[in-house]
Amino acid sequence: MDPRILDKLSEAATPQSQSAGWSLYGREEQVHRIERLMRATAEERRAHLVVVEAGIGTGKTRLLSEAMALAERNGFAVFNGVPKSITMVGPRQGRHDTDRISWLAAQVESQLDAGLRRGPVLLVLDDAQWTDPAVLRALGGLMSKLDDSPVLWLVALRAERGESSNSLVLRGMTRAQRGEWLGPLGPLSSDAVVGLVGDLFGAAPDSDLVELCESVGGNPQAIVDLVRELGEEHCVVVGDGIASLGTGPMNSGIAVAVAEDPVGHLPPPFLRSVRGRLDELSQRAQNMLQVAAVLGSAFTPNDLAEMLGERPVQLLGPLQEAMSAGLLSSDSEGFVFHREPVWRAVLGTVPAPLRSILHRQAATMLLVSAGEPTLDVAVHLVHCTEVGDAEAVATIGEAARRLLPSSPQSAAALATRALRATDPGGPDHLALGTTATAGLVRQGRLTEAAELAEKLLQVAGSAPEESIRPLRSWLAMALMLRGDASAAQQVSRECSSAEASADGPDPTPELLVLNTLSSDNQTAKAGLADRVLAGPGAYSVEVRMAALNVRAMASWREGRLDEALASVEDAVGLREQLTESCQSDPLWTKAWMLTRLHRLDEALAAADTARRTIDCDGTGAVSPVPLALRAMIFFVKGDIAAAETEVAAGLAASRRVEMPLYDPPLRAVLVFCALRRGDLAAAVERLRRLGESMPAEAVHRWSVMWRLLTGLVSSAKSGAHAAIDEIRELARDPALRRQLVLEAPLGTAWSVRTALAADQRPLAEQIVATAEEIASVNQRHGPVVAAARHGRALLDCDLTALAGIGELYGDPWTVASVTEDLGSLHRGTDREQAVKQLSHAMAIYEEVGAEWDSARVRRKLRRLGVRRRHWSPEARPETGWSSLTGTESKVARLVAQGLTNRQVASELFISPHTVGFHLRQIYRKLAIQSRVDLARIVP
Questions:
Q1: How far apart are CA 200 and CA 227, in angstroms?
Q2: Which of 164, 373, 529, 791 could be bridged to 395 by S-S, CB 3.0 to 4.6 A?
Q3: pLDDT of 925 above 70
Q4: Are the CB atoms for 246 and 237 separated by under 8 Å?
Q5: For residue 849, which of 670, 639, 600, 687 has the smallest C-alpha distance?
Q6: DSSP H or E run through 280
Q7: Can you name the residues that pair with 153 across neighbouring β-strands?
Q8: What is the pLDDT of residue 82?
Q9: What is the pLDDT of residues 634-671, one digit of tens each?
């Protein structure tokens, strides 16, 4: 870890530091109330009192430091404390004490008078629990005397001394003065933990690191101590602005409950912290918690009492002790460990042989109680089932299959662990392995899925084909999603061959999905889908939905857009009937089609629904897909910053789940954005990386997009002649020519414009003919009609035909493009109209940030003798509102409206941790320290 981070963490470990290197988090309400009283003190010219009650390590001193800094910024003179040698409680010494206290009051009054001559005053008294009560009463008298002076008295005391005599004195003073009692300070919220940990590490913490830090009870000092130890012992790695555990991601839920080692991936400093808290409990409470941990992260008192052989009433004392220590909480159902890492750490203190015995006891108890096998029973059985226990294996297998649709991670964990209790090659082994493979594929652990499936197939031997076929389908899916197209197609052919010889005609939905993803033999794919659709009653909902999805894409490629949309809508209509999650959601297809038809709000709604489904079903393998869809939607909308944010999230998800299949469309958006901005060097580099992500096949689903972008970049670099080869390659094949016209509505106009500039009129005529052929049967779709009319107008130099085309396209950039073409056609006949149209086009380009296009139009105007002043974009300043990026500005405004980090994340479709990271950048750039400051200054 960076030594500078370690130095910062060491400084953070000093609780009395008055100049902390991090912002104050989780105390916005208290700061706001102090600030309100500070304002009232200054405006009313009258005294006010604030008393802060806080427990050890909850940030009391840090809050006082924040208040003092706030006061200084608002013109207050600040006096920090009263000499402790005078204020500390000690033996009474009669008259001498009275004189001493009178002298103290006089000294304080003198200081305040001196400060009041300059303006309002803040006087701070920390640790008032140790102050002599007589001194407090004397200060109370001084408050009354200076009641008509602008003095804000800020007093703090420990919550642990909340019923002391000093507390009673202060409460009386609060009632007598214009005062407020703040506290006791509660635990930090999740958003506050994210902010604090992010500041300490100088990077946004990932969810696992946040979970660990929240597990220490929300106490700021405990969090700082844990973070310091994690840093010192190199348990955290920082990369790409993210701080994460060096041991890798933590599992959760059933995946942890069935793990052989419950503390796997939990760092030693955290384990020591939990064990230290355990050691502070009585031995009886410790034993009770260990047995409770075997039951799970949540348990009922009746189950715990039965496991311990005691009556529930006997557990009252130990349970209350554990709750007071912050290790347990209760709800209407029973008791819950404070956080999952706490539960895991406690469970890890139970010796492994004893854990197995206790799991057997729990399974027996729950089985008797429920009368039938349940998921809880299966989870306990995993830890104690021996090879040959067919009944236990069947219980575990059924539980895993039931979990697969809703929780693939849990299903995979349960089935994988149970494989140890089966004979390799046996039917139970193969069935459990297939469930585990399916779960691994769906959650995005593709390499593990492929390795497991291949190992299972090696030992399958002479197993019936019907039991092997689903495993092969999932293996093919894993290989395809991972990018191993040739291997996937080989396995797919084995599936197809096996299916043809099987008794039932029903192709698996996985096979149809695989066909949707693959690039070879489009006719065979459509034929398979049509076979299903010809006899829908013979097939499952999953198969029919997949077939409709395949048919929709086939119709689109054939240029029958209404049929394509109707098929995809029928497929979407079947989603509600699904019995399990799907790997290829028809909403993806719907969003993709609607984007190309410029129905962007509908497309975004479809993409967002698909994303929520992925989150709900846990199908992480396909998480990059809706991000790729959203990226293109935002680009077409003209929001380049949002598009690039989605791409970054999509590529990160792709790396996380080993699914590069959608890297090409994600990287394509980056090329489009670079061209739109006029950054040719970035466009060239991004195109190179796009090429590296392309499938190896000569023709694939991204072929047209790749050639279009290659042509655009070549044209931008070297002119039309350099780009013409790409257009010629696409125009040779009627199917590719149709896809060129449909890939992007302006693909037609650009291709025609480029072909004409390169003296390739026959090529331009060929493209226009294809566009008109498609438009003739798709008159309801404005962008398609506009593309044909646009291409024809350019081919014939027909000014009249260009009228109204921009409105048919429906987005600002295309309106600017049509307007530019109008101006260009006018240049030879009507200079005034040419200047008018080109100036209008340039204004629109500049409004949407299309700098390259704006520069091109500016050159055209210059040739007409018109010079438009060009304001070069200045470097972004380092501070102030103009220094914020687009995403930071959105975050700032939403936070200023009162939204929490989680609410902002939901609005912007990013993670709460990313919001926290942006918020820290905002605070730094705006030189503020809280949400209160942000709300006050937001324009």
A1: 8
A2: 373
A3: yes
A4: yes
A5: 639
A6: none
A7: 49, 123
A8: 56
A9: 999 888 888 988 998 899 889 888 888 889 999 999 99
Cα–Cα nearest to 673, from 691, 696, 647: 647
Identify the helix (H) or strand (E) that includes residue 152: strand 151-158
For 109-117, the CB contacts below 8 A with 24+ separation are: 109/142, 109/145, 109/146, 111/79, 112/79, 112/142, 112/146, 112/149, 112/151, 115/77, 115/79, 116/77, 116/149, 116/150, 116/151
Q: What does the pLDDT read at residue 634?
A: 92
Cβ atoms of residues 330 and 336 within 8 Å: yes
Question: What is the pTM assigned to this prediction?
Answer: 0.69
How many C-beta atoms lie closer than 10 Å to residue 82's C-beta?
Answer: 21
For residue 585 the two structure tokens come to 């959601």
Average the pLDDT over 526-533 and give the result: 83
Radius of gyration of the chain (CA): 34
Give backbone dihedrals phi and psi of 53, rounded to 5 degrees, phi first.
Answer: -105, 130
Strand 77-80 relative to strand 204-205, pairing: unpaired
Nearest Cα neighbor of 598 from 815, 849, 853, 837 is 815
Question: Which residues does 53 contact at the CB level (< 8 Å), separation at least 6?
Answer: 156, 157, 158, 159, 162, 167, 181, 182, 183, 184, 185
Q: The dihedral of CA 211, 214, 220, 223: what is its sign?
A: negative
Q: For tokens 């294809």, what's the residue?
A: 770
Strands across the sheet with 204-205, in order? 204-205, 242-245, 236-239
Helices and strands counted in the chain (H then E): 49, 11
Distance (Å, whole) CA 87 – CA 81? 10
Distant-in-sequence, close-in-space partners of 383: CB < 8 Å, separation ≥ 6: 258, 355, 356, 359, 360
Angstrom distance (rounded) from CA 770 to CA 731: 9
In the chain, the N- to C-terminal Cα span, in Å, equals 39
Contact status, residue 273 vs residue 235, Cβ threshold 8 Å:
no
Question: Is residue 17 left, alpha or beta, with left meaning phi > 0 and alpha meaning psi from -120 to 50?
Answer: beta
- 251's tokens: 């599992």
- What confidence tens digit (pLDDT) does each residue in 765-806 have? 999 999 999 999 999 999 999 999 999 999 999 988 888 888
Task: Name which of 119-123, 504-508, 595-599 the model is least confident about.
Answer: 504-508
Is residue 914 scored above 80 in pLDDT?
no
Residue type, 52: V
pLDDT score recorded for residue 151: 94
Q: How far apart are CA 660 and CA 676, in angstroms?
A: 25
Size (the chain), residues: 939
**Coil, strand or helix at 348:** coil
Query: How far is it, in rounded angstroms, from Cα 101 to Cα 92?
Result: 12
- Give me the residues paired with residue 80 across strands: 124
The sign of the dihedral angle between the CA atoms of 231, 237, 242, 248 is negative
Comparing CA positions, the residue from 622, 630, 586, 623 lying closest to residue 604 is: 630
Closest CA to 826 of 842, 810, 838: 838
* pLDDT tens digits for range 4-39: 444 443 444 333 333 444 578 888 889 999 999 999
What amino acid occupies position 192? A
Q: Nearest CA to 509 among 539, 465, 479? A: 539
Q: What percent of the chain has pLDDT over 90?
A: 42
